[in-house]
Amino acid sequence: MNAHSDWNQQIIDEFRSNDGTVATNGFGRSLVLVHHLGAKSAKERVTPVMGIPTSDGWIIAASKAGAPDNPGWYYNLIAHPDTVVEAPGEGVVAVHAEVLAGHARDEAWSQFKARSSGFSTYEQRTSRVIPVIALHRRPNSRA
User: Fold this and answer.
1) C-alpha Rg value of the chain to the nearest Å
2) Measured between alpha carbons, how far is 143 from 92 in angstroms, rounded to an integer?
3) Contact, 73 vs 5, CB < 8 A?
4) Are the C-beta atoms of 21 and 47 separated by less than 8 Å?
5) Is 86 helix (H, G, I), strand (E, B) or coil?
6) pLDDT by residue (tens digit) across 87-136?
7) CA distance 112 to 120
8) Are 56 and 96 in contact (CB under 8 A)?
9) What does the alpha-carbon distance between residue 74 and residue 56 come to, in Å, rounded to a whole number?
10) Contact 92, 44 (CB under 8 A)
């Protein structure tokens, strides 16, 4: 494991041990654990990301701290959009991932910047448009 995956595993363990509350970095109950299948490997992975609740699920941003490329989990969700998330106080919830575009994407992205100045910094670090993904609850969404 590399340092990044060790850190992610620490966050995942803390999330699961505290019903979705993560004291590390002051995340609180702002994270969801996104399960995703490798687009090429089909290996299941879990990634903690900030999830902003919506009327039918959550929005997440593929910011990768402003790196020049999108995170691997973004491509995995495009390849396999029907997945599950672990959400604070809800456990495992079945969702369908939809990459937002145009005004819907811009409006959703503004919510991330309003929540944390870090997202504005990420936007300044990269020339790419940071993707925002809506995670819509699927019918009978308890997985």
Assistant:
1) 14
2) 6
3) no
4) no
5) strand
6) 999 999 999 999 999 999 999 999 999 999 999 999 999 999 999 999 99
7) 8
8) no
9) 20
10) no
**Residue 5 pLDDT grade (very low, low, confident, very high; cuts 50, 70, 90):** confident
pLDDT tens sequence across 15-42:
999 999 999 998 999 999 999 999 889 8
Q: Which amino acid is at 39?
A: A
Q: How far apart are CA 85 and CA 36, in angstroms?
A: 9
Q: What are the backbone dihedrals phi and psi of residue 92, each rounded to the nearest 5 degrees, phi first?
A: -85, 130
C-alpha separations of 107 from 46, 55, 82, 136 in Å: 26, 15, 24, 17
Strand ranges in 10-80 using DSSP code E only, listed in sequence order: 31-37, 44-50, 52-54, 57-61
Tokens read off for 142: 């308890």
- The bridge status of strand 52-54 relative to strand 44-50 is unpaired
pTM flag (> 0.85): yes
